[in-house]
Amino acid sequence: MNMDTRNFYAGQDFYAHLMLGASIEEGGVRFRTYAPAAEDVQLVLANEVKDMHKVADGNFWEVTVPDVSVGDTYEYRIWHGGTCVDHADPYAFEAQVRPAHKSVVANLTYDWQDEEWMASRSDCRNKPMNVYELHAGSWRKHSLRAVSVNPADWHTYDDLAQTLPGYLTELGVTHVEFLPLSEHPFDGSWGYQPTGFFAPTSRYGTPTQLMHLVDALHAAGIGCIIDFVPVHFATDEWGLANYDGTPLFEYPNQAMGVSEWGSYNFMHSRGETRSFLQSAANFWFDVYHFDGIRIDALSRIIYWQGDETRGINGMALSFMKTFNSGLKSLHPGIFTVAEDSTSLPGCTAPVEQGGLGFDYKWDMGWMHDTLDMFQTGMPWRPQNYHMLTFSMAYFGNERYLLPLSHDEVVHGKATIAQKMASAELPDKLAQARVLYLYQMAHPGKKLNFMGWEVAQLREWDELREQDWFLREQPLHEAFYRYACELNAMYRDEPALWERDYEGDGFAWVEASDTEEVTYAFLRRDANGGTVLCAMNLSDKTVEREFEVEGADSAATVLMNTDWQRFGGATPDFFTAEPECEDGRITITLPPFSAKLITWPKGA
Among the options 13, 89, 339, 577, which is catalytic? Predict the structure, then answer.
């Protein structure tokens, strides 16, 4: 048996899944696993147990079995120290629906129809990117029961393929990001404690059904991002834990081996582990046609246990550089995104320049400062004014994405709309409209978690669908209308995205009005188009005059968060303003409102 394992051991392999796992071949299904410390390995099928034999350098075990069909279940019985444990296949392409956990022989044949999309997709560096973050099991459910753990209530991948593309098209977003779809045993982990890194969770259907969902989204012009967890994995004994009787994937000591979430940390200094994770990420691009990948909890890779005082984990950083450069070399047009809460420079710098090679980094500072400001009560906003100006002091350091993610609407934090500093719902929603306009006008790509578009007021959990009934209430339906128009406006205005990462694509006009708490800034595109964003975060009507070079009497209101159709008080498309003369624009801003002003190119 000839097996080229050099790249596998060196941590350079991106196709280890072609060498390992269950492979359908002429004459049967070949089962192969990597278990160097095992004393013996057996293949456990539904009705029989087959002995496996060593191949290659003796660290791999293999057997080929005829008369095995797609859909058949299997496990590996691994013996070590005179005892055995039955493990799911680390490289399995499918698994049973939880709480069962055996691996499943899978068929990955699918007739893709997205050739045009795949040929033209890009990293969107100079294009709009407005991401809708979604948990597949709780976006919608078949049952209207308040709480449901019944698998029959989940929408399948096929159900989502019928409903999600049209919904996202109406909403006006450009991409959807799925919380981790890797197989996981516990619903409440939301996929962030996986066991099957190559197996899309069977909660919602089969691998080919997921392919159909991605295909349908691409047909609708929606890019697909997968959330990926290369830091840790679930501790269930049938999974990766002590796979060959020893800590094969994890650290051998508890101090480093166990994460703050109680899961096991991957040992990134092992080439086999690096090849496993790289191949898993490549699998989502290669087999499922995902367009981007978001890396969870990067701080736990950068620093030992995520603790800066413990120092940098050099081998893990080396893994991340190989991971990013390898994936983008294999799949031109894809992008990688880091959830990185550290201040380590170079996250989005090219690997060849000493960076980590990500395309985008979540701007956690922007998220915290923005939410803190909007949660601050009126008497204290003047003193906290610069929470909304600070982001531009460091924005040039990386290519940032502005996230208001699932993490901000769970565990007692309240939803985004509910966070707004007011006891009255109309004022909460007015401020939420300002917040989202500020997000769309601020440089950087955008991400919002499902439910934001109806101003959901109940914290998210995985057991219930989103509160779509809110759209029966006029204020929430008006908010949904606002979300759709805001997304469309963002997508259609190049000034809001074309020069996100170029210094002259942004300029402050007002960043010192600590008394009335107003702000104003410009966004510019590459062809002379300009948009002025003006915001009033006070509870009083404010009239402001701004000096804006080039503006003239042709200036018009592009968007007003206070228009009546959005739930505000200003008549829709009110056009008596702005007053503009000799580069001076006078704008009236109602309480808790914002406006976007534009004028003809070259004016």
Answer: 339
